[in-house]
Write a structure and sequence with these properties.
Helices cover about 70% and strands about 0% of the residues. By secondary structure, the chain is mainly α. α1 crosses α4, α4 packs across α8 and α6 packs parallel to α10.
Amino acid sequence: MPRDPTAPTGETPGAGAPPRASTRERILEVALELFVDQGYDGTSLRDIAKRLGVTKAALYYHFERKDDIFLALHLRAHELLRDVLVPLDEAPDDRARSDAWPAVLERFVDRAVEHPRLVLLHVRNPGALAAVVDDDRNRSENEDFQQRTLRLLQSAEVPIERRVRMACALGAVVGGLAAFGGAQEETAVPELAEHVRSAVADVLRRPGA
């Protein structure tokens, strides 16, 4: 196995050096910080290497291109999305899934608050996001989410008025999270999240309730 250039001199993975995954995670964390603070287009591999204190060549051991780093960060959002959908997975039928919809959206907002930089990465770098949409892993996971959502929103088991409110509430979350991009400080994200929750509650509330 080729020696990890980011490992201490004389050490190779499995011979006392830090696990390769830890180095990879350091690259991702630094890249996430730079992509959010100065933009994907404004960040070079040299910038990431300099912040890490390694050579640019050392980055190639883990990521061949800057696009690969962005994709790896984007797929973290997919991992969070799988957690968000747990209430739907546990529900026995579409009527129960519609009842779980508020909990799903609540978890969605919760994860955004817990990982604000991951949200900011996406809303501040739409061009980089568009460049990874055709990746096979990204496409398959997005299609799965979209198909599951559409099936529920089109289910005859759920009253049409309820389905419309569910769809609009999802739009309120997605649109509300886009407003995170204007937050100058991460500390503003929890306040913005409360506004999103309020908007979702308004949409889901039945008239006269």
